[in-house]
Design brief:
Strand content: under 5%
Distance between the termini: 43 Å
CATH architecture of the largest domain: Orthogonal Bundle
Helix content: over 70%
Order of helices and strands: HHHHHHHHHHHHHH
Radius of gyration: 24 Å
CATH topology of the largest domain: MetI-like fold
Number of strands: 0
Oligomer: single chain
Number of helices: 14
CATH superfamily of the largest domain: MetI-like
Structural class: mainly alpha
């Protein structure tokens, strides 16, 4: 009996922060189906300069899908920015598969002089925030005449060190004896990579894809720095362009923007956890 009570208290203790984290998402969902008049009554004290406290109802008095209809059928700019995000995220992840994954395999499977020093340098570069490298990146992209193009966002992300770091942890779990046995049996290095490295290191690979999608789907600083034309912006820069007078429209756009990220996270949650564990293992 005491054990059940202890488990119940622990579950309640863990459930409370989970509810606090999910509560804003629930507010976005309910606010997106409120009409403009009801939203004005609830948000008026905040944006209207009033002295009253903000009020909110978990269930709207008069639910409406007016904002969804306006966004999906009367706002073509939303879809332009949506497909810009799909294009950039898809190209970045595909590029990281072609560049970062083989590089991580090389660091994990082949031990040559200086490889660990180079990998340590990669880790240091991963820790540098975008603000530190923004000016140098801008100058390089300007010299290459890539500014104000999607390539200015895609190419630097393709050569990011973060996917190499995560995939490296997964590839390090592949037994060295298995690789040696494959070489003795006459398997080539490419075949070893494709038939042994990728299947056994898929946890780190898939966690890299999940984290990469979540990061680049919500990208803001790089597009603001390198893209001048709003027609080239990703969807993450669409919401700041919506004024507070369009609160329902903004809440609706926020919820739709959240759906792909939540869907990818749910599908890759197990692999994400395993990849994070691998990245924290010491050799």
């Amino acid at each position: 009996m005491g054990r059940k009570i202890k488990k119940g208290i622990t579950a309640a203790f863990l459930l409370l922060p989970a509810l606090l984290i999910c509560f804003p998402v629930f507010l976005i969902l309910t606010g997106s189906v409120m009409d403009s008049i009801e939203l004005g009554q609830y948000l008026g004290p905040v944006f209207g300069g009033g002295e009253d406290f903000i009020r909110w109802k978990l269930i709207p008095d008069y639910p409406t899908f007016e904002h969804y209809g306006r966004l999906l059928f009367l706002t073509p700019s939303f879809f332009v920015l949506f497909w810009n995000s799909v294009k950039m995220v898809g190209c970045i992840l595909a590029g990281q598969l072609l560049v970062g994954v083989p590089a991580a395999w090389a660091f994990a499977a082949y031990r040559v002089r200086g490889s660990q020093t180079l990998f340590a340098l990669y880790v240091v570069l991963m820790l540098l925030p975008f603000q530190v490298t923004m000016l140098s990146s801008y100058l390089v992209l300007d010299r290459l005449m890539l500014l104000n193009t999607h390539s200015a966002i895609i190419l630097p992300a393709v050569f990011s060190t973060f996917p190499i770091f995560l995939c490296y942890g997964g590839f390090r779990q592949v037994p060295v004896q298995l690789l040696e046995a494959a070489r003795i049996d006459g398997a080539g290095e490419l075949r070893i990579f494709l038939e042994i490295g990728l299947p056994l290191g898929k946890s780190g690979l898939l966690s890299t894809m999940v984290l990469g999608f979540l990061e680049y789907w919500n990208l803001m600083e790089q597009p603001l720095a390198f893209l001048e034309e709003k027609a080239l912006w990703p969807l993450s820069l669409y919401l700041p362009e919506i004024s507070w007078m369009q609160a329902g429209f903004a809440l609706c756009a926020s919820f739709i923007t959240l759906i792909p990220a939540a869907f990818v996270f749910v599908l890759g949650q197990d692999y994400l956890e395993q990849g994070i564990i691998y990245s924290g293992l010491k050799e």
